[in-house]
Queue: 4 jobs
Job 1
Amino acid sequence: MNLFRIIYWVSTAILSFLMLFSAVSYFVNPEIAVGFKHLGFPDYFRVELGIAKLIGSIVILIPLFPHQFKEWAYAGFGITFISAAIAHSQSGDPLSMVIAPIVIFGILTVSYVFYHKTKSVSVLST
């Protein structure tokens, strides 16, 4: 396994774990519902986002999904993290709540870049 694949799989595993943990928390942790209300979002958005995070993390993690599905999942996560940072910033939350989604966006970016690098290496080696 080359270095590109290792970086891809480590970043993707971390990202998927964070999204799966987050999605499950959306459904079982009552404090999350309070947090969504604090940000000004309706409760159905919490459920919708939880389902989207579950689906997106599975799509990114499992290699059998088509490339186009993965692209949409990466884009959706990117929009989610940027929106989360903005929402926390505008709601007067502490800086740590603003920085956390930006850090996860960085992990997403690493996963995305190395996803494409592993694809280009696979094409070149065949």
Job 2
Amino acid sequence: MYGIVNKAIQDLVTENFGAQKWEDILERSGIEEDFFISSEAYDDDITFKLAVAVSEEMNMTVSQVLIAFGEWWVVRTTKEKYGGLMESGGTNLREFLMNLPLFHNRVMLIYPKLTPPEFKVSHISENSINLHYFSKREGLQEFVRGLIQGLGIMFNTPTTIELLQTRDLGDSHEVFKVSW
């Protein structure tokens, strides 16, 4: 993952709980880095160690941490750092989700070493859409749930997210039914 992801975790913690809490999390995680360069690629293991350390330090499940981080990523990180890119995705939640399959193509222009997930959409209706999530990385489905929730917040659209299929149960990829 790029450093911007780890930096966003740091920002989430320090803004909500203070710099000392971040130092405690870094120590608990056992990772050597004490700062992250946004444009540098880091081993995924660092991000997972940070998520586990946040979970332990904040007395939350890793799933809760990933959901909270997904929301933060959309509402704060991407909106602040990539506002124009986010605005180009659509004017409402439905449009954004429909355009999501092409979104990472634009992101790869900024981060050429990115190994992005792939998204596809199906069962498109006026009030719902099925979002298919394909990734080489495992264990991030709750982060994706948080991203979707964050998009709902960004577009001021209350959402309901139902996991229809998951690799955890032997499926080839995750499918989320997003309703609004």
Job 3
Amino acid sequence: MAKNKKKYYVVWVGSKTGVFETWAECLLYTKGYPNAKYKSFSTRYEAEDAFMGVEHIPSTKKKSEPAIRDFSKIPEIILDSIAVDAACSGNPGKTEYRGVITSSSEEIFRMGPFEGGSNNIGEFLALVHGIAQMKKEGKNDKVIYSDSKIAMGWIRKKKCNTKIERTRENAKLFHLVDRGEKWLKENTFSNPLVKWETKKWGEIPADFGRK
């Protein structure tokens, strides 16, 4: 008989709210409660994100984003790789990030926008997300491109050394920052992090095209 997979339960509306590890707890805090709102998730991270209201944006290419470019004629670029980038409107301002397959610019993840962030925070989170996703998929040798030396340095130190102050407005963003730092401290990875040479190669494939 197949073993039941572990689930985590988010209660948004109930006699007690939060992330719970058993259905019994979820039922205890929602049964009979007016307009109770709850849902199960397969991982704690997904549950924590959902409880904080973090929105996972579907990976769909938008018309405003840059056209796919052919990098095959640039021998220095490793095509079997992914590229990550971030965008921020203001400092602090609305921040989002994404990752794409370098050779095709096909988007593989996107998060945001989040209030009260910075481009460097977005670049850091993009790298953590890319590293964690490659590890989950068993692609431990996959090169990850970033055009941010600062974010790559933060990854090496396992610390998002931002000067942006934490506020109620950017709580969702810093929830991800805390989670990212925790992941880096608890996990190892072997993916090469490579600086994207913008001056030589043009904008990184994950660029949002808003300059």
Job 4
Amino acid sequence: MYSVRIKKKAQKQLMDLPLSIAGRIAVIIDGLAENPRPSGSKKLQGYNNVYRIREADYRIIYRIENEILTVEIIKIGHRKDIYRGI
């Protein structure tokens, strides 16, 4: 089982989302502890161990650290601007 860490910036982004979306994203984040590569997740090109998963028009960007069994949530946001400045 992986431990899940959420960066402060990502935590703030999650809190700023509408409650209905934030709840669904929280469920996905909890699920990453069991399976860090669920169906629908994709590895981002040009980055080491960085993945994204979709929820409606929102994306969760996260890094998997297999050596220490950790998933780190980097960024959460709308698809139109989530990939700027990862």
